[in-house]
Write a sequence for this structure.
């Protein structure tokens, strides 16, 4: 079960999926050397004993979705570094572990953005697991519903005259559309060469009957734990808005593109749903 001190059930769920991926999936899409440690020994023991449920088709599909989206974000950061981008911003970081297992260049500067309560919970988990906080990392407290991201990042030391690579995973669907647009427009004002990778819920009329049925299951489960899906987007209209904001390149990653990129070597026939899709947009 999730620790009672954790502010968001979805953050704990994502961390558990990441850890379960290390135990139950082969070959790995996302290698994470600290995913199990950050959960703590009791949660790790429960997860290791949960093999029957973890091998259920739904559990496998959820882990695959989590691993693929994280892998795309991290691969985008690696590509950005080859273009001499040295600032990486992880929005809605939750228990994301990249900063604690990555071998970044000394010049790299990492920023984790989240609500203050979530950040305190995470740092408590890190201390309990004896996972060190790297000197290259800065914690940035912000609220996507009320705050201005760029101002909070600049106060934390982000160089606004240099490009930054942003990842924003598992967040937009819990915000209203106008709140999502506000943050995307804010990032579009960053230095040329800046980018963002994010996932979003596709509007219902773009889904198949099976996907709509699956979405209902997800929506009901999230509502039961106090979290609600508040936004969805039409991919073409979303691309149009990104262009208006000033993004010069918009790359779509639906189930077909992500399957070909990350699941081609898997022999279990796992495929991704089209309920959630991803975009990489570059200023």
């Amino acid at each position: 079960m999730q620790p009672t001190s954790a502010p968001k059930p979805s953050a704990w769920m994502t961390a558990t999926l990441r850890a379960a991926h290390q135990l139950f999936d082969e070959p790995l899409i996302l290698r994470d050397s600290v995913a199990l440690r950050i959960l703590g020994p009791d949660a790790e023991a429960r997860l290791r004993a949960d093999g029957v449920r973890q091998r259920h088709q739904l559990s496998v599909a959820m882990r695959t979705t989590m691993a693929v989206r994280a892998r795309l974000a991290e691969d985008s950061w690696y590509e950005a570094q080859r273009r001499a981008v040295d600032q990486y911003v992880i929005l809605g970081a939750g228990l994301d572990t990249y900063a604690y297992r990555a071998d970044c260049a000394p010049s790299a500067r990492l920023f984790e953005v989240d609500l203050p309560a979530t950040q305190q919970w995470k740092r408590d988990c890190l201390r309990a697991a004896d996972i060190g906080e790297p000197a290259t990392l800065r914690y940035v407290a912000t609220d996507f519903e009320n705050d201005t991201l760029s101002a909070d990042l600049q106060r934390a030391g982000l160089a606004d005259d240099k490009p930054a690579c942003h990842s924003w995973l598992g967040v937009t669907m819990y915000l209203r559309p106008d709140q999502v647009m506000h943050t995307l427009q804010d990032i579009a004002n960053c230095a040329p060469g800046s980018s963002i990778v994010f996932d979003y819920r596709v509007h219902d009329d773009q889904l198949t009957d099976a996907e709509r049925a699956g979405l209902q299951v997800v929506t009901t489960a999230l509502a039961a734990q106090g979290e609600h899906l508040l936004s969805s987007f039409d991919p073409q209209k979303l691309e149009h808005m990104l262009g208006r904001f000033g993004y010069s390149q918009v790359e779509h990653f639906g189930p077909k593109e992500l399957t070909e990129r990350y699941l081609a070597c898997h022999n279990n026939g796992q495929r991704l749903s089209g309920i959630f899709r991803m975009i990489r947009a570059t200023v």
